[in-house]
Specification:
With 552 residues, the chain is an alpha+beta fold. Helices cover 30% and strands 22% of the residues. It contains 14 helices and 25 strands. Strands 15, 16, 17, 18, 19, 20, 21, 22 and 23 form a 9-stranded mixed beta sheet that branches. It has a 7-stranded mixed beta sheet with strand order 6-7-8-9-10-11-12. Helix 9 packs across helix 10 and helix 9 crosses helix 11. It starts with 12 loop residues before the first strand and ends with a helix.
């Protein structure tokens, strides 16, 4: 049986409490710091943690005079942990520091995941907050650019906002800085016998200005350091006096159709607000522009930890001002917890006139032939036998198209997943209209959107749309504007500032220059976004921007 001295694994990091813990400790190298480190701890407190890629067994802290102090496995040793140096627990330090920082910002619901990207836990740290709709991802391990772009697309489809940050060994930070003007970086340093987390801003010339996370601010765009905080961002940060409201305790109904800008990234909604156990008051609620606008006929609950602040807007009414990250819409128009809130009645679709229903029924026999696809409303009017016949006609038409393409020798242009308008009750015209309306709504809110929002607007799921279908829909929308028109497709993003992978194909099909490099695509997309935002900007937004440029 080997002795402790035979164990050549110089382990510098461990976790405390249990093998699956995410609470890291770093054993100082010097024996003078050893006693201070051990104060309040016992020799049974340390584990070769699972989140370190370790075996889960207990470790012993070893004090030496003439070599580095380190942790040692208790024999017998059967551990395959790959990384044991002073930086081997940095992913845990970053995750815990982000959790504490977000709690100080009022986000007590932050959840952390440590991803294994092939070389053990810690390839990336993901922190979700705001009921999981917002995400900060710190990429620590090296990944290929195509895999990175795929991850950006996947995460943007399931979150309202994703901020990417990069570790000291990730070259993707250089790509991000060149495409977006800056990138957020993380690193850890050994100070006073512990590992201290630093966050920095990298510019395209690859210089990084470092600071602690406590010196940073959280905005709608994510972590903002002193280098990236401009006057506009500082204006949008909460004032000095603010009161935290209990999560899930405040409900509201919207009382007016219009909105007022609240800085460059937020909108103000007039609302009736009722905290649990209190009375209804009139208030203004500040929500991110990227959030789906609350409907007047629904009852909504603010999630996260909203802030009650003094109003900084000229109007004295209403006196209450609440800043929140988002809301959840309740399925019922009333709730016993907020008995005094009464939304306006939901709009009722006018019933089909009798003669229209009869005319539709007469034409049913020809459905699937020259009549093409039916809308969901039309399809719901069919009997079960008519629905079966309609579906048979759709399949026959698709098979005929495929045979004709095969006979002509042209490859089948579609992906393996059929577009959603080949299903009963779904027409391409309706999908294109729904997606266009969602893009126009985003343009008016001056935000970009992902396919989770566009698919929901069409009553479908993002998985229902292959890249071929997404391209076809966006081409149909942009072609209607003409060769020189604005491109609403420029508002569709995979994540952050990255264009969708098929944006170049859209440019080519609408008659624009295509075959561009990624950096050129990013520049084209930003130009087209500016044109779209200008076309749909609210007059007050234009005045605000003009005043900001003129200055005092």
């Amino acid at each position: 049986m080997p002795s402790y001295e035979d164990d050549t694994r110089k382990v510098q990091t461990a976790v405390t409490g249990r093998p699956g813990s995410d609470q890291p400790v770093f054993l100082p190298f010097d024996h003078d710091d050893f006693d201070g480190f051990m104060q309040g701890r016992s020799r049974d407190d340390f584990y070769c943690g699972a989140l370190l890629g370790g075996c889960g067994k207990k470790l012993t802290a070893k004090r030496y005079l003439h070599k580095k102090c380190h942790f040692a496995h208790r024999p017998p040793v059967h551990c395959r942990r790959a990384r044991t140096g002073e930086d081997s627990a940095d992913h845990l330090y970053i995750g815990q520091t982000l959790r504490r920082w977000l709690q100080q910002q009022g986000h007590r619901d932050a959840g952390i995941a440590y991803l294994d990207l092939g070389s053990g836990p810690g390839g990336a740290v993901e922190v979700r907050f705001g009921q999981g709709r917002r995400l900060i991802r710190v990429q620590l391990s090296r990944v290929a650019v195509p895999a990175w772009e795929a991850d950006r697309a996947r995460l943007s489809d399931t979150h309202t906002h994703v901020q990417w940050a990069y570790g000291p060994h990730s070259g993707l930070g250089h790509v991000e800085a060149e495409a977006s003007g800056h990138a957020v970086r993380f690193t850890c340093r050994t100070e006073s016998g512990s590992r201290v987390v630093y966050v920095g801003t990298q510019t395209p010339d690859r210089t990084v200005e470092w600071t602690t996370l406590g010196s940073c601010r959280l905005t709608d765009e994510g972590i903002v350091t002193s280098r990236t905080t401009g006057a506009a961002a500082l204006h949008a940060i909460a004032p000095a006096v603010a009161f935290l409201l209990a999560p899930g305790s405040v409900a509201f109904t919207v009382t007016a159709e219009g909105t007022v800008p609240d800085g460059p990234t937020r909108l103000l909604y007039e609302a009736d607000v009722q905290p649990t156990g209190s009375v209804v008051v009139r208030a203004r609620i500040s929500l991110p522009r990227a959030a789906t606008p609350p409907l007047r006929h629904r009852l909504h609950v603010l999630y996260g930890t909203p802030l009650l602040q003094p109003s900084t807007h000229p109007s004295a009414e209403p006196a209450w001002f609440i800043r929140a990250d988002g809301f959840t819409s309740l399925p019922a128009p009333t709730d016993a917890r907020w008995p005094d809130l009464r939304p306006v009645p939901a709009p009722v679709r006018a019933p089909l006139r009798q003669q229209e229903a009869e005319a539709f029924t007469v034409g049913i026999a020809k459905v699937g032939g020259e009549y093409g696809h039916l809308t969901p409303q039309e399809y719901s009017k069919l009997s079960k036998s008519q629905q079966r016949r309609y579906w048979q006609k759709v399949k026959q038409r698709r098979q005929a198209d495929q045979k004709a393409q095969a006979a002509s020798g042209r490859p089948h242009a579609r992906s393996e997943t059929d577009p959603p308008w080949t299903r009963p009750g779904v027409s391409k015209e309706d999908v294109v209209k729904a997606v266009r309306d969602a893009l126009v709504s985003a343009a008016r809110r001056q935000v970009c959107v992902g396919w989770h929002t566009l698919a929901e607007a069409a009553g479908l799921r993002p998985a229902d749309f292959s890249d071929w279908a997404r391209t076809s829909i966006l081409v149909s929308i942009d072609q209607a504007s003409g060769p020189e028109g604005i491109l609403l497709s420029s508002l569709v993003v995979s994540s952050g500032n990255a264009p969708v992978p098929y944006f170049d194909a859209i440019l080519g099909r609408v008659g624009r220059p295509s075959g561009l490099r990624p950096i050129e695509l990013g520049q084209v997309r930003k130009t087209e976004q500016a044109r779209v935002f200008a076309a749909y900007a609210h007059p007050s937004d234009l005045t605000h921007g003009r005043d900001a440029k003129l200055g005092p």
